[in-house]
Amino acid sequence: AAGVIQSPRHLIKEKRETATLKCYPIPRHDTVYWYQQGPGQDPQFLISFYEKMQSDKGSIPDRFSAQQFSDYHSELNMSSLELGDSALYFCASSLAGPGRAQTEAFFGQGTRLTVV
Amino acid sequence: AQSVTQLGSHVSVSEGALVLLRCNYSSSVPPYLFWYVQYPNQGLQLLLKYTSAATLVKGINGFEAEFKKSETSFHLTKPSAHMSDAAEYFCAVSVAAGNKLTFGGGTRVLVKP
Fold first, then answer.
1. pLDDT score, position A64
2. A56 in reach of chain B (CB within 8 A)
3. Using one digit for the tens of pLDDT, what is the confidence trace for A95-104?
4. CB contact under 8 A, B44 and A43
5. Residue B77 in contact with residue B64, Cβ under 8 Å?
6. Contact A48 B97 (CB under 8 A)
């Protein structure tokens, strides 16, 4: 079965650079979530989109932005990178539309971002 | 708002012994509860979920969890640990289908031969 695809799997950037992470949800899933997992930490919710509209927002820095495109893939854009942004970034997807919502989210393998 | 507390950041068990991972939650509405497993450098894989149906939930790899509303708990158990169970386990809560997950701090399981 198709899973959530994230690219790239690994990314190394220098401080103050910009990074773009991509997420391709499971086909027919209408909701995408982004989470950040720092070293030795639990995943923290950043932002989510339902049908290409932002549906919820967590502790996402103003330097980060995200969007969901017409084909439902999503991109997380991170600017002015700081050392503390080094983390594993997960994308997850689910089917959350009215009357057909699934209760669980399916996670991708993550993108490991290292800022040096 | 919802929150999850996992008691014990590390658990060490012998192969063949019982695995018990503790999770307590706080939620202002009836929760959806999940256990995820994460192997090193891997994503999060769903083990099992509670969504207001049966309180005893069976998942993959022989794991099960029991929802106890009176104790606000959702502890994860496996009768007999296997070496392949060595991983980090996260308990998570959501307040509705399609909503974000709030995770506990995770419990790292070490299985000794």
1. 97
2. yes
3. 876 655 567 8
4. yes
5. yes
6. no
**CA–CA distance, A97 with A65 (Å, rounded to integer):** 24
User: Can you read off the two tokens belonging to residue A51?
Assistant: 């049908």
Cβ(B98)–Cβ(B69) below 8 Å: no
**What is the sign, positive or negative, of the torsion defined by CA atoms of A75, A1, B52, A41?**
negative
CA angle A4, B83, B76 (to 5 degrees): 65
**pLDDT tens for each residue of A72-107:** 999 999 999 999 999 999 999 998 766 555 678 899
* C-beta atoms of B36 and A106 within 8 A: no
Helix (H) or strand (E) holding B4: strand B3-7
Retrieve residue A61's tokens.
């820095």
Does a cis peptide bond (omega within 30 degrees of 0) precede residue A8? yes
- Residue B17 in contact with partner chain A when CB distance is under 8 A: no
- B66 has a pLDDT exceeding 60: yes
DSSP secondary structure code for residue A110 in this structure: -
Q: Which helix (H) or strand (E) holds A91?
A: strand A87-94
Confidence of residue B54 (pLDDT cuts 50, 70, 90): confident
- Residue B40 has a pLDDT of 86
What span, in angstroms and rounded, lies between the C-alpha atoms of A100 and A114? Answer: 38
Using a CB-CB cut-off of 8 Å, the residues of chain B touching A90 are 43-44
